């Protein structure tokens, strides 16, 4: 739905400089297929728009109860996602949804943990390391 709108904007000379991708990721036990995202980003890139990865975080509530394992797996999700999006030269910003990992309590009583660049003790997290690795590759 977004691509036809962006194309229409370009065709009708409506000023638009960038597309923001809200990136609230959900970590699951299985790997994610990013083929659709890759195709979409190439099409957006062809429109000569900047791409901003916005609000990057990883909800790890569907992962193992083991905190260390959960943190590593969530960081892996962030790294894989960033490696896909950073292949596009138009990606010019990657802000996170906050700085400190924290527990989350949803509206429906569900709870989980949101991984971000720093632990609750303000130490760089595995998420932080994953971001650095992906940015260095990109």
How is the secondary structure organized here?
Elements: H1 2-11, E1 18-26, H2 35-46, E2 50-59, H3 67-85, E3 91-93, E4 102-105, E5 111-115, H4 126-137
Parallel strand pairs: 1-2, 2-3
Antiparallel strand pairs: 2-5, 4-5
Helix pairs in contact: 3-4
Describe this entry's structure for a reader.
- There is one protein chain.
- This protein has 138 residues and is an alpha/beta fold.
- It has one domain: Alpha-Beta Barrel (TIM Barrel).
- It is 38% helix and 22% strand.
- It is built from four helices and five strands, in the order αβαβαβββα.
- Strands 1, 2, 3, 4 and 5 form a five-stranded mixed beta sheet that branches.
- Helix 3 links the parallel strand 2 and strand 3 (91-93).
- Helix 3 runs parallel beside helix 4.
- The protein is elongated, with a radius of gyration of 16 Å.
- It starts with a helix and ends with a helix.
């Amino acid at each position: 739905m977004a691509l036809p709108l962006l194309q229409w904007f370009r065709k009708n000379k409506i000023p638009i400089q960038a597309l923001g991708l809200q990136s609230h990721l959900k970590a699951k036990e299985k790997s994610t297929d990013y083929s659709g995202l890759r195709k979409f980003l190439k099409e957006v890139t062809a429109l000569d728009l900047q791409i901003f990865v916005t609000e990057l975080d990883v909800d790890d509530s569907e992962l193992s109860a083991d905190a260390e394992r959960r943190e590593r797996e969530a960081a892996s999700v962030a790294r894989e996602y960033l490696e896909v999006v950073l292949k596009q030269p138009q990606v010019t910003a990657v802000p996170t949804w906050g700085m400190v990992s924290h527990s989350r309590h949803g509206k429906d009583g569900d709870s989980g943990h949101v991984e971000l660049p720093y632990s609750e003790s303000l130490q760089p997290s595995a998420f932080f390391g994953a971001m650095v690795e992906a940015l260095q590759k990109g």
